[in-house]
């Protein structure tokens, strides 16, 4: 059995570029929402003339949906803010002639008005609904799977202690913002997903990759808390946390 120090060192050494969580296979599990994001996006891509994926990460999920789509959009575009992911996305989406623009997550989109009939985003850190509405063509849709308030609160509190405030109805707030931007909300759903970490190395890798869970995370800063997580996993077999997901589809009126 590997020791705490060995597991922590292993989790700290794994590269975090891109949005690929395959290193966690066999070490952590996460329940998925029932709507199936990749299949849903592939279905929408099959009828899109022009598609834009916001905050695409390394383009992994977008590329998989493009591969599964029955027909390819005439124009494929994406945005990303982190340079290492930007390079990955450009290589990955080159197969579809994809253009990937470097754009701050809260910045304006470098595209003309009414350019795309599909704008997608999976787990965006922020949503510029005014910009989304602007670049959507009349009758076009924005499809988003967002991260709900309270996601991994259990994990965060294991390191930070009790956090103030209650969880917010994130999907409802997103719907309100979409309507304020002039869009029609045609679908809104939410789901609570069980997450299990089976060793502390998986916890370390996850916290290094999903940096907003514990924004100042480092192994050195949180070693005592990580040791307690390790002991809990040894006692109970897994550390259980929860993620919140919502799905929203909003359409620009024709």
Automatic annotation (TrEMBL):
Is-annotated flag, keyword Cytoplasm?
Answer: no
InterPro entries, per this entry?
23S_rRNA_MeTrnsfrase_RlmA, Methyltransf_11, SAM-dependent_MTases_sf
| Source domain of life | Bacteria
Q: Which residues form the Methyltransferase type domain?
A: 52-143
**GO biological process annotations for this chain's record?**
methylation
Q: Which UniProt keywords apply?
A: Methyltransferase, Transferase
PANTHER family per UniProt: METHYLTRANSFERASE, METHYLTRANSFERASE TYPE 11 DOMAIN-CONTAINING PROTEIN
- Name-wise, this protein is Methyltransferase type 11
